Amino acid sequence: MPFTVLKELANKVGIFISHHDTYVSRLERAIKDGEEFTHKTCHECNFGVEWDSTVVPVKDELPEEVKALVDEIEKIHCEFHGISMQIDPKNPQPSDEEKLNRMREMSNLLLRKLLALKRLLSKRLVEEE
Amino acid sequence: MPQYALVIDLNTCVGCHACATNCKEWNTQASFGPLSDFDPYGRNPKGVWYNRIMSYEMGEFPNTQVFHLPKSCLHCQDAPCVPVCPTGASYKREQDGIVLVNYDDCIGCKLCSWSCPYGCREFDEADKVMKKCTLCIDRIYDESLPPEHRKPACVLTCPAKARFFGDIEDPNSEAYRMIKERNGFVLFPDMGTNPANHYLPRTETKVHVDEHLLEAENPLFLEVVRRHYKGG
């Protein structure tokens, strides 16, 4: 795995976090205001588009432990979107609170895994330098 | 819903740092202060600044330009720093759209600084909490101040009058008019954060120089005039 690719991935982690939290912020605002919200899948949101264009093409070249973490992040991210899609801000349901809590849990987990990825990549970069 | 914001004219900003200095001066002594400094007069000074000015050089010599980008919290309408906060310390006020941090609830985990794509969060190593621009909320609502002084410190101090403040949702506000009339833009619109702060774009200034002026003997003068004449 080229050093520059690992470095680029490490630098992108902040952007992934920003994309995801912006999506959550927009969804939570829509829920609060009861406004229409266009849900996106884990491959359509800004995070997914960026991830699919930068991480997925190099995934098979990544060191095993990094690849395992990347797989885990993808799974959590898609699970987050699966849960969030069940919430319709224009048509609130009593079960929404539970789904929201689950969605927030997945979001926190995703964040922790992304930070773990950053740490792992930084460690690798130090080792390779 | 009102959304207070800054509108910054990049065409007028000369990068003098007066806004940043007055911001620090006001906020270090007012309700949200102090803003810590470490080794301020040493080789590696560090500290909390709500407002920072980035300066960039563009083009190649001799046709270069320097432009300055003052940057503070953009008070995004879909602020990613709010949902990411595990304690709810980071919040957006409904009445004016200002994003604030409740220091009593902040645990200094820095997640908000990870999520902010603009790098506008400042961790105070002395207080161990995250700090950021408050749009001088302790000035703009202070009725003991004359109405013309109820503006953020950076706006009041700008010697080039490059900064404007107001409700960007109110068609009667100066900020709203500036954005509409001068094609105000936001940073990283693709991020979807809908920043409230806007920038007014730079415009190229063409200077007409009479032919006889180009015959001056001073070579430096000639060079400068020639560059202006070409619009460089």
Automatic annotation (TrEMBL), chain A:
Superkingdom of origin: Bacteria
The name this protein goes by in its record: Uncharacterized protein
From TrEMBL, chain B:
Keyword 4Fe-4S tagged: yes
MF annotations from Gene Ontology: 4 iron, 4 sulfur cluster binding; metal ion binding
InterPro entries reported in the protein's UniProt record: 4Fe4S_Fe-S-bd (IPR017896), 4Fe4S_Fe_S_CS (IPR017900), ET_IronSulfur_Cluster-Binding (IPR050954)
Swiss-Prot/TrEMBL keywords: 4Fe-4S, Iron, Iron-sulfur, Metal-binding
Pfam families referenced in this protein's UniProt entry, alphabetically: Fer4_11
Domain 4Fe-4S ferredoxin-type: 4-35, 64-95, 97-126
The organism's place on the tree of life at top rank: Bacteria
Keyword Chloroplast among UniProt keywords: no
PROSITE patterns xrefs: 4FE4S_FER_1 (PS00198), 4FE4S_FER_2 (PS51379)
Gene3D superfamilies cross-referenced by the UniProt entry: 3.30.70.20
PANTHER family: PROTEIN NRFC, PROTEIN NRFC HOMOLOG
Annotated protein name in UniProt: Sulfur reductase subunit SreB
Native species: Thermocrinis ruber
Gene: sreB
